[in-house]
């Protein structure tokens, strides 16, 4: 069996690449589609799978789009890349810039980035600037910096990012052998739901495309409220965004697919995260768990969930370990078999 070549080579015929595009790769993509063994029982007759994007090289779905964006930046002769980030984008941009031999400037909202993600960006050699403002203000700052300083902006405003992210839709179709009935994703900056819908539209005829269900956190739900949220608050730091860059694309994806965008509470998110870890063996970051929390909310509300459903788990739990402090702490015992037996 030949090794997986990465997104650029595996999907070259469906991506905007040319003979001049470097074949940059960390072997991203080809992530598992894991069948549910427990949470599926809450959904009645549905068949539930988890698209485990935490298996990407830097631990999140961002790698799919970042490899395309950075490769195209190299092709265009960029000397550096720049991004604003709540964490996962920073980690991915720093890794692929390092791989490509480019400098990377990351702008983070002060105090709003999980430690695991910040550690990745720093270790990959990015220049990290912490600014006292929201993510939305940081994004405005890097957009201006990219224009004035001649840097390649690699946030999801970069069209190559969404092109790379749509490849997950192709993989789901290949892995299932047929379209799912619905795909549920967490929604923060809204690029991922936009990209998945683009992929399904390119691959499937109308009438065969899945419903797209987008889930936001109640404290950061601008698409649900229909207006920007100036001070978004949620334990799910990756979707703590009040003015999504891909707002229109996300709304269009939900509407055209017959899906919806709705919100869940932080408690629902943390409960879903715990269930994923203890019942399914998947340690996902809180933002990822929002997708599962959304499915469970629909089930409790009596929404009929049928057919095959894919919940996208966008990032690994080690990215954002602080919520794991709620899990049981180690138990001090004597170093005897009898003491260990008492724990069981």
Account of the 3D structure:
With 344 residues, this protein is an alpha/beta fold. It has 13 helices and ten strands. The protein is 40% helix and 15% strand. Helix 8 crosses helix 10. The N and C termini lie far apart (43 Å). 54% of the residues are buried.
What is this structure, in a nutshell?
The protein is an alpha/beta fold.
Would you spell out the secondary-structure blueprint of this structure?
Layout: H1 7-10, E1 33-35, E2 47-52, H2 62-75, E3 80-84, H3 88-100, E4 103-109, H4 115-123, E5 127-131, H5 135-149, E6 152-153, H6 159-165, H7 167-176, E7 182-186, H8 191-203, E8 211-217, H9 222-225, H10 247-257, E9 260-264, H11 266-280, H12 286-300, E10 308-313, H13 337-343
Parallel strand pairs: 2-10, 3-4, 3-6, 4-5, 7-8, 7-10, 8-9
Antiparallel strand pairs: 1-2
